[in-house]
Amino acid sequence: MIKWLHWLSAALIFYFFLVEPDESRTDPGGALSTHAGMGTLLAVVVLVWVVIYARNGLTGRPGPKLPAWGKKAHPLMHNTLYVGTPVMVLSGALTGLLAPFGIRAFGIVPINPAAGSKGLHGFAEEVHEIAFDALIILIVVHAVFHLWRHFLLKDNALRIMAPKALHKYLLP
Question: What residues have CB less than 8 Å from 60, skipping those under 6 apart?
């Protein structure tokens, strides 16, 4: 379950990286509606992650092949992801709640009362974008770290994180 949550989170965050509601010229309202819906899905996934993290702590441990700096960086990076992702999701939720216009997730589920102010919404939107950009940087560092582990240290880091169905595509 942890592996699937990991990759589902990655796919949802990649979606947000690719699609900006403000940049949709053909249907900005539909793009915002889809953004809110995908954000709601990500919030559910992150909530499950946070519950698992609160109960069990970090699920992965630094490998024995990691140098001393890697053994220190591993838990720091993962704990930061466990904190940073909910912060980014909450800042997005706050942005939606403070919007002076109605937002419906996937065009169906009402997200907010449409009673916010333009100034507060703009401020929350900036905070959300900064949180998202910081999270993307951390995710890239995280991915590079694990690619380095898998290909240079050859400690099977990707096999540990990838579902078994994908193992045949990983280089040794």
Answer: 74, 78, 160, 161
Nearest Cα residue to 16 out of 48, 54, 43: 43
CATH homologous superfamily of domain 2-169? Answer: Transmembrane di-heme cytochromes, Chain C (1.20.950.20)
CA 127 to mean position of chain CA atoms: 16
Angle, CA of 44, 9 and 5, to the nearest 5°: 75
Residue 117 corresponds to which tokens in the numbers above? Answer: 């102010």
Task: Give, in degrees to the nearest 5, the angle at Cα 59 between 53 and 65.
Answer: 145
Which residue in this structure is represented by tokens 């169906």? Answer: 108
User: Hunting for tokens 């309202």 — which residue is that?
Assistant: 29
The pLDDT tens digits for 73-127 are 999 999 999 999 999 999 999 999 999 999 999 999 999 999 999 999 999 999 9
The count of other CB atoms within 10 Å of the CB of residue 36 is 24
pTM value is: 0.89
